[in-house]
Design brief:
By secondary structure, the protein is an alpha+beta fold. 26% of the residues lie in helices and 18% in strands. The chain has helices at residues 50-54, 59-70, 73-76, and strands spanning 2-3, 8-12, 19-23, 27-28. The longest helix is centred in the C-terminal third of the chain and has 12 residues, at 59-70.
Length: 80
């Protein structure tokens, strides 16, 4: 994954007044995907169900809050 957000140089060309934006930094993720076309897989995948969507329940947020409240800080940093 490569990203060029963050600090940008914004230039205005003097003759045409055209604005040009040039990214200053490039972020490259230190991760080699196991499958081409796939990014980083989450440690704790959460799949919201149809009931969650219909009731506008945020299943990911609720799972995260449950995980934080039920485990010590060292347990949260371990992979499942």
């Amino acid at each position: 994954y490569v990203n060029t957000s963050n600090i940008m140089l914004r230039l205005i060309l003097p003759n045409t007044r055209t604005q040009v934006v040039i990214p200053v930094f490039q972020y490259v993720m230190n991760y080699l995907p196991q499958t081409k076309g796939r990014g980083v897989l989450p440690d704790h995948p959460v799949q919201p169900g149809i009931d969650d969507l219909l009731s506008q329940k945020d299943a990911v947020w609720e799972y995260t809050m449950h995980l934080i409240s039920s485990q010590s800080i060292t347990d949260v940093h371990r992979s499942p």
